């Protein structure tokens, strides 16, 4: 047994404790896991952000993203608790990484019969992957809490903040790779647009086309003849990007296999929702948890998280960046989104420790409402590039707050039931994404923005109900404790008088 993991048993409780040095090993697991997810999703998000623009013919890219999140819904219902029971959290993560590989490989030959099946495969691996990650972080946070004697809720939030810092940097590296490749040897086509289409006779008329047809007015199906900004890049560049992304996924899998400890190290004397149950019973646990009142109340904001991520990946990139500025610039804009998202994620946990969860949620709500209203009135053009980065950056800030706070809230509200709780989280997050991707090819962008705004208001309202219930429960507990103390104190005083 390693010296830094000596077991100490107390005579009264017979519990196992860890030596203080073990906390550095726990931090190593958090950091390696975050790094592996960053490398893995460098590939996935880099490819996903290009789908609605690069594979725009017959909305192939958008339908592939819908297939991913559609299968992710089924995956979250049937697979996480069962797969985690079979393989454990560590090996579930490593194996799930491999299910993403066919999606990247299909970029070499993008057709419906290659991309849709590979997208479905991603979804089936995604459910166990994210549930295993959330469960792993929650359980090692409990061990860390025992070592440091800090509140487990604060540790969970801190670990999720560090993890999502790494995770959101995947947007930076993935988009940096795609931008570097797509921008290399790029030909300037703006001066030759008159040869491309009779509808675009000059640079000035092209500018007018982008103002009239892009942004909130964008409707899927606009041709490159009407707007040359939508002209897809050469297939050779897409294949080079895919090759780099495949290498990233292999590296990520190896990081988990050789750099992350098995959860058996920290799961002593702890019974989770997947412990000792049959496969059918595990499915019932997941579905039964759906009807928990708190789970129902957190459902709308969870769906919003999935919907806003789908919107920024597909609709914002297609309607604003590609249409208004050009496909090759998607990566640069999304780098801003990823960088702000990553930095905000690491600070979200620390700030909420000082301010509390409610002010953080209120801040994200106000900023996100402002962003959606801005998108309704903004006319994107390549002449003024600053708004692209401002909107992407603020969107990344809000997304970081939603992810860190709502993920941590699930761990706080449902201790000991993490597998079922996070399975439901991913289920409804995926539902929000797949619905958004499904209607994306058929609605104008302003309609999508109104739908997103409505879901946000409903979600934050339901979350507020949870906070009110929790505050009332704490207030009632304090009143009961005070009453019991006064009763006991009164009896002691009566005994003193009689004596």
UniProtKB/TrEMBL annotation:
The keyword Transmembrane applies. GO terms for biological process: regulation of muscle contraction; regulation of potassium ion transport. One of its GO terms (molecular function) is potassium channel regulator activity. It is a multi-pass membrane protein. It comes from the Eukaryota. InterPro entries: Ion_channel_UNC-93 (IPR010291), MFS_trans_sf (IPR036259), UNC-93_regulatory (IPR051951). One of its GO terms (cellular component) is plasma membrane. It holds the Pfam family UNC-93. Keywords: Membrane, Transmembrane, Transmembrane helix. It is found in: Membrane. The keyword Iron does not apply. The chain crosses the membrane at residues 30-48, 60-79, 91-108, 120-139, 151-169, 238-260, 297-318, 330-352, 358-378, 390-414, 449-466. PANTHER family: PTHR19444:SF50, UNC-93 RELATED (PTHR19444). Belongs to the unc-93 family. This is UNC93-like protein. It comes from Photinus pyralis (Common eastern firefly).
């Amino acid at each position: 047994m390693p010296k830094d993991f000596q077991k100490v048993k107390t005579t009264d409780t017979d519990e196992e404790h860890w030596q203080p040095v073990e906390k550095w090993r726990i931090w190593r697991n958090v950091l390696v896991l975050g790094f592996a997810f960053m490398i893995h999703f460098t590939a996935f998000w880099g490819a996903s952000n290009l789908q609605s623009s690069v594979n725009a013919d017959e909305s192939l890219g958008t339908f592939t993203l819908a297939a991913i999140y559609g299968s992710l819904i089924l995956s979250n219902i049937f697979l996480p608790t069962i797969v985690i029971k079979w393989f454990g959290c560590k090996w579930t993560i490593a194996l799930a990484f491999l299910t993403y590989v066919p999606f990247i490989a299909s970029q070499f030959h993008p057709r419906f019969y290659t991309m849709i099946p590979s997208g479905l495969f991603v979804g089936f691996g995604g459910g166990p992957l994210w549930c295993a990650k959330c469960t792993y972080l929650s359980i090692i946070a409990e061990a860390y809490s025992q070592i440091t004697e800090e509140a487990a809720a604060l540790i969970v939030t801190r670990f999720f903040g560090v993890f999502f810092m790494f995770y959101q940097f995947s947007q930076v590296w993935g988009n940096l790779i795609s931008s570097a490749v797509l921008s290399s040897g790029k030909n300037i086509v703006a001066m030759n647009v008159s040869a491309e289409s009779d509808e675009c006779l000059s640079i000035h008329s092209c500018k007018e086309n982008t103002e009239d047809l892009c942004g909130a007015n964008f409707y899927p199906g606009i041709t490159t003849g009407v707007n040359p900004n939508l002209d897809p890049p050469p297939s050779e560049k897409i294949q080079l990007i895919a090759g780099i992304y495949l290498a990233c996924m292999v590296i990520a899998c190896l990081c988990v296999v050789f750099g992350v400890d098995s959860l058996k190290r920290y799961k002593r004397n702890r019974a989770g929702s997947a412990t000792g149950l049959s496969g059918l019973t595990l499915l019932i646990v997941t579905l039964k948890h759906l009807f928990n009142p708190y789970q129902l109340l957190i459902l709308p904001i969870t769906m919003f998280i999935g919907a806003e991520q789908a919107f920024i990946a597909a609709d914002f990139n297609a309607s604003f960046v590609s249409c208004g500025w050009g496909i090759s610039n998607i990566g640069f804009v999304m780098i801003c989104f990823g960088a702000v998202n990553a930095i905000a994620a690491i600070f979200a946990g620390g700030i909420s420790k000082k301010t509390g969860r409610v002010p953080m949620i209120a801040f994200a709500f106000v900023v996100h409402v402002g962003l959606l209203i801005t998108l309704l009135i903004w006319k994107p053009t390549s002449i003024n590039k600053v708004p692209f980065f401002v909107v992407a950056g603020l969107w990344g800030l809000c997304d970081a707050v939603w992810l860190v706070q709502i993920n941590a809230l699930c761990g706080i509200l449902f201790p000991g039931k993490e597998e079922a709780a996070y399975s439901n989280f991913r289920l409804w997050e995926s539902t929000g994404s797949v619905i958004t991707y499904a209607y994306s090819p058929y609605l104008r962008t302003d309609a999508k923005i109104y739908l997103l705004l409505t879901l946000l208001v409903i979600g934050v309202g339901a979350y507020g109900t949870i906070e009110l219930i929790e505050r009332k429960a704490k207030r009632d507990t304090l009143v009961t404790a005070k009453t019991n103390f006064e009763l006991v104190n009164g009896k002691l005083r009566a005994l003193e008088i009689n004596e």
